[in-house]
Design brief:
alpha/beta
Length: 746
Amino acid sequence: MSEATATTPAAGAATPGATATHCPYCALQCGMNLRVTRDGGGPSGIPLEVVERPDFPVNRGALCGKGRTAPAVLATGVRLTEPLVRRPGSGALEPASWAEALAVVADGLRGTRAAHGADAVGVFGGGGLTNEKAYALGKFARLVLGTSQIDYNGRFCMSSAAAAHQRAFGLDRGLPFPLADVARSGCVILVGSNLAETMPPALRYLTELKENGGRLIVVDPRRTRTAEHADLHLAPRPGTDLALALGLLHLVVAEGRVDEEFVAARTTGWAAARAAAMAHWPEQVERITGVPVPQLREAVRLFADAGSGMVLTARGPEQQSKGTDTVGAWINLCLATGHAGRPYSGYGCLTGQGNGQGGREHGQKADQLPGYRKLADPAARAHVAGVWGVDPDSLPGPGRSAYELLDALGTDVRALLLMGSNPVVSAPRAAHIERRLRSLDFLAVADVVLSETAELADVVLPVTQWAEETGTMTNLEGRVLLRRRAVDPPPGVRGDLAVLHDLAALLGWEKGFPTDPEEVFAELRRASAGGPADYAGIDYRRIEREQGVFWPCPDPGPGEPPHPGTPRLFLDRFATDDGRARFVPVTHRAAAEETDSAYPVVLTTGRVVAQYQSGAQTRRVAELTAAAPGPFVELHPRLAERIGVAEGEPVAVVSRRGRAVAPARITTSIRPDTVFMPFHWPGEGRANTLTNPALDPVSRMPEFKVCAVRLERAAGPEHAADPATPAAPAAPMPPAAPATPSAPAA
C-alpha cells in the first residue's frame, strides 16, 4: 500500500502578528491566518480578521465567502457566552452558572441510566469536532456512560462511500491521493458534486485539469456552476446513478476497452461484476436515466482512452438507499479501465464536513473504536481497552446508526448528550425527528450558537469555536492538520474537552479525560497505533513543520527514521489481505420511493455557496445571509407553467412526510421532472421536512437525494402548513433495499 511522498512546501511563517490555522467549515480545511483586530472586537464585536495564507498547498491562499467571514460567528450577540438551563416554572431557557449547568447534565444522564439502563442514554456527535474531541466523546460514551448508543452526523455525509471503499480496497480514506493530483489526471468523472459552490477554492484543480489537457465529465441532474466547466455533462434522473455507472461499464466491455492486464494482476471478482454489468444494455440505461446513448458512448471514450482517470463522488450518488452499491459501481468502472492504484488515477470521495474524515476514524461512530478499528473485533477491543486501562469485556458493543438513534429518542433512548450537530434542520424526515427530540426525558446540547436543536434542550453549554481552541482535523485528502488557538474565548465559554472532563468527574471518573488537546492527541496516537487509520507517527510539531501529515503514518520505533506518511495509497497494493482490489457485482434497483400519480415529481436537495450544512452558524453572518437569505424551490419552466407559478411566487412542495413552502426559482438548468431545494433553513422552508429516511442496508445512509413530491401553488406563507404537521398522511419508513450479498458493515 506504499507510496510516493507528497511534495509540500516547507511550513511558512504566519503573517506577522497572526496565527496560522484553518477554516472552520468544509473538508478542504483551507489554510488561513487570523489576526486580532485593532479594536480587539470593539464596536463590531468581531475579535479577529482573516488574512491570506498562500503557503498552504490545498487552497494556496484562496478562500470562499464563508471562510473570509468566519470570525463573524464569534461576534458579541451572535454566539453563546453563558450556560442556559430550562427552568421548571417558566419553561424557558435561562442563564445559569457552569456548576449548576454541569450538575443538571450529570443528574440527567445518571438518573436516566439508573432508571432505564445504560443504553437509555445516547450520545450524538458531529463531523466538525476535532479529532481530539471525537476521540474523547467516544471514550466518554463507552467508559463513563457505558452506552452503545453513540453515532454522529457524519453518517449522513460520507458513509456510503466509506462502506464501498472498505469492501473494494480494504481501507477508507476519502481521497487516496492529494488534491493536486486531480489537475494532472487525464480524465475526471465528477458525480453528484457541485464543487464550484460547495468547495469553491477546489475549483482551481478542475480548471488546471483542463489547462493541462485533461477532460472533465460532470454527472448531475442540474446544470450547475460546476457542470458549466465540463467537456461533457450527463444529467440523469435523480436516483439512477447506479444504472448509469453500470451502463458505462457495459459499454467498456462491449467496446473492448477493459484493461485486461490490470484486472488480471491486481483485482478479484471480475467475472461476476462483468456479468452484472452486461445485463444493463445502453438503451435500457437511457430509458432509466434519461441520458442518451451517444452521451454514454462519449463518456466511455473519454474515460477509457485517457492515460489516467479518476472518479470523484459526493453526496449525489451517496445519499441514496443504494448508495454503497452505487459508489461500488463507479469503483468497478475505475478497476475495469485500469484507473486505480496508479499515479493520477483512482476513485475518491469528496468528503463534506470539516472533519468528516477524522470524525469517522476515532470512535464516535456506532460500530467503531479509534484508529478506524471495528468495535466487534476482539483484537481491536483488547488494544484500545489496554490504552484506556479497562477490561475489554466492559466495552459495549455496536449501537444504532445516526437516523436509527434519532428515531429511538423518547422510547428506547430517554436522554441525549449532543455535541456539534443540529438535527432539527439536518436530519431526514426532520419534523418527525424534532418530535422525537421534544419527547426526550432529558436533552443537553453543547454548541457555539443557540441552534434550532439547542432551543429544545434542557441544558445548553456554550463551547469554544475553532479560533478559540487548538486541535487537529483530517481533511478530505487524509492530511492531518493543526488548528491553532488565536484568541481567548469569552469568560463564560469552555472547551468541549473541559466539558467532558468535568462531566466525567461528576459521574465518578476523576482521571482519563484531560483538557489539554495535545495530551489527548498523544493518547489518540497510542489508541490508533496499528489500526487502519494509524496516527502513531504524527505529532503537533511534525504537523506544523510539514503543513500536515497524511495517514497512515505509523511510528517505526526508537532509533528508526520517521515514517514519511502516505499521501498516495494503493500504488503497490490494495489494503486487502491479498493486496488485490475487489470487484463487487451490483445491479440497478429503484429508489425506495418512486414517483406516482399522487407524487409525480422528484425532489433532490443540496447546498448553496453562501451557506453551510444546517446554517446554524452561516445564517448568523450578515454578508452570507444577504447573499442567500432563504430557501427556494428550483424548477423547470415547463413544470412551473403546469402548476401556474411565476418566478418568486411561493410554491408548496409536499411529500408523504410533510410540506414545505419557498419561493419559486425558475430555470432551464434542471430537468423538467425534478425540483431542487437547499437544506440550510428551518421553518416552513425546511427541505428535510420532505426527505425520505429509507436507509442503505450497508452504510445506513438515509435517502436524502431522492423522494417523490407534488407541487402546489401557495398564495403566501400564511397558507403554508406547519412543517411539523404533514399535509399528507405520513407513510411508514420504507424498508432498506436488499443488500449486496456478503457486504461488510460500514
